[in-house]
Amino acid sequence: MLGIELADAAFLPAATVALLAGILSFLSPCVLPIVPPYLAYMTGVGVGGLKSGERSAVVPALFFVMGLSTVFLLMGMAASAFGRMFLQWQDLLARGAGVVVILLGLHFLHIIRIPFLDAEARIDAQERGGSALGAYALGLAFAFGWTPCIGPQLGMILSLAATGGAMGKGTALLAVYALGLGIPFLLSAIFINRAIGLMNRIKPHLKLIERVMGGLLVVVGAALLTGAFPAFAYWLLETFPWLAALG
């Protein structure tokens, strides 16, 4: 029972990290600038048509988010299954993942550069916008094609999923990450004019956002490397005993 309680308590900080990583992924320099063009593409009108209300982007955006969420959930299940396969070496797996996540964070902080993370392996969905199926396919393509771009954040969450024990919790972490990335996309479609104005104000600060993401990666990597997540889980259980009821 203690293992289950500990896993549940450890899920809370991990889920918080996953949500924040998803939001920062949306705000990253390689995602935020393409949001209006993607919404326009999915609806089959130009950005001007979106701003004038010629066609709503809400339904296409919903199917786009469903598409990328499908990929992330499959990744979460695969990472959890991998972690369960190597359960006896989970401490070693967590420390190895911590080293990798720290390196990814240092890349975002521009302390070291990892060339393939500066590339984009975009996949063309091969369908013009205007249909729900096309938007869903584009979401699938985005999740696969932008992996080099959002890979550091995604790799961090996959590492947490692989070292998190139960498959359901690992999959849930990727679902939370998908929410963090997908909800701002949906809000952008619903409030398109305000969203475009807000994005224009955010763009000058994209480098700062990138460095914040790098700092988060380094902190989480250090927690994986030192075993701080289980220690933090014990502290949560001692401080908030009601968390044990989650198990």
From TrEMBL:
GO terms for cellular component: membrane. Pfam families: DsbD_TM (PF02683). The keyword Transmembrane helix applies. InterPro entries: Cyt_c_assmbl_TM_dom, Cytochrome_c-biogenesis_DsbD. The chain crosses the membrane at residues 12-35, 56-80, 92-112, 133-154, 174-192, 212-237. Keywords: Cytochrome c-type biogenesis, Membrane, Transmembrane, Transmembrane helix. It is a multi-pass membrane protein. It is found in: Membrane. GO terms for biological process: cytochrome complex assembly. Residues 16-225 form the Cytochrome C biogenesis protein transmembrane domain. Its main location: membrane. The keyword Transmembrane helix applies. PANTHER family: CYTOCHROME C-TYPE BIOGENESIS PROTEIN HI_1454-RELATED. Belongs to the DsbD family. This is Cytochrome c biogenesis protein, transmembrane region. The lineage of its organism: Bacteria, Pseudomonadati, Pseudomonadota, Alphaproteobacteria, Rhodobacterales.
